[in-house]
Write a structure and sequence with these properties.
The structure is a homotetramer. By secondary structure, chain A is mainly alpha-helical. The first copy, chain A, contains six helices and no strands.
Amino acid sequence: MSDILQALQVVLAERKAADPDTSYVASLHAKGLNKILEKVGEETTETILAAKDAELSGSTKEVIAETADLWFHCLVMLSQLDIEHTAVLAELERRFDLSGLVEKANRAK
Amino acid sequence: MSDILQALQVVLAERKAADPDTSYVASLHAKGLNKILEKVGEETTETILAAKDAELSGSTKEVIAETADLWFHCLVMLSQLDIEHTAVLAELERRFDLSGLVEKANRAK
Amino acid sequence: MSDILQALQVVLAERKAADPDTSYVASLHAKGLNKILEKVGEETTETILAAKDAELSGSTKEVIAETADLWFHCLVMLSQLDIEHTAVLAELERRFDLSGLVEKANRAK
Amino acid sequence: MSDILQALQVVLAERKAADPDTSYVASLHAKGLNKILEKVGEETTETILAAKDAELSGSTKEVIAETADLWFHCLVMLSQLDIEHTAVLAELERRFDLSGLVEKANRAK
């Protein structure tokens, strides 16, 4: 399950070089950083609204879909700035001192 | 590297049950969904500003730190709504048809 | 100059009752509060990006246009919730104790 | 009622030159544009959450207070960029062709 971000980063790197007329990802890169950041902002608002609606309805489908949209556009932003998503994960690992837990999870495989 | 989100989810689940006076995560859950969503919005704005500054300065440290903050607060939001982060990753896998790539990466380990 | 928000509120009230197929404002109301709030979020991100660009370029045209978009969609939100924009202005007057200044400005007309 | 934004702009211009240790507005200007834009983003999220809650509860007090916060921080942003708020109002007047309505309202005074 957990290698999905890695696989997605590979796909995004391929599409960054694709034709903007046929690839949504390529079209975002062609439009530039502002367009990508607009999408990050947009998906955050949609995530917030979906979370508020999930709180009431108990239905989580929308908030899962919107969070996926948000993370996807964050990855496009990182790609635009030539940052590997693993730099973000490493920052989280460092802050929460997760190295022991990650090692233990890997041994359990 | 990629099991960090899983390890972080384990940590967040533990802290959800901790004392709000000593754990930041517990204090967010105690304050409720609105407070958590305010943080998601806040970190998005800080990510956007850091990305704009990174575009100019070439320095990526801030945008990595702010994206980590954003993803962290997204995980707290998912935890508040009793959603596993793997549901978001599965949605990304489905959309981008990543299953072949993920399998290949796992075989290479 | 300062009665523009009042005039705009009159226009927005008329369009709220218009045909969603021909009026953008009516179409927003027909789609409901979430759609209107998505636009508020979107215009905020565009305002933030325009302000960052204005800081560099010295050009203020975009930030003026985006702030106008933001305030406009705030007025549509207030209209959707049956709130007069004067309630927001009264709150600002109360907080900043502006009544003396406003009275003085009115006498000077 | 409608001269409140004008009065507020006068107050904000005075406070821009005040001591950052005693004036919130001066402290925002001293911290710079990013800090001001963070506040604009923050208040937008709080406005969105208050609007969602108002939709359910019928209580409009919070959404009025948060929209006031948002407009206030927009005015601080304009002040930071040396833009008069009347430039934003003039843009709205132009777009919605409000000049006739504004003139009529002024005659009725």
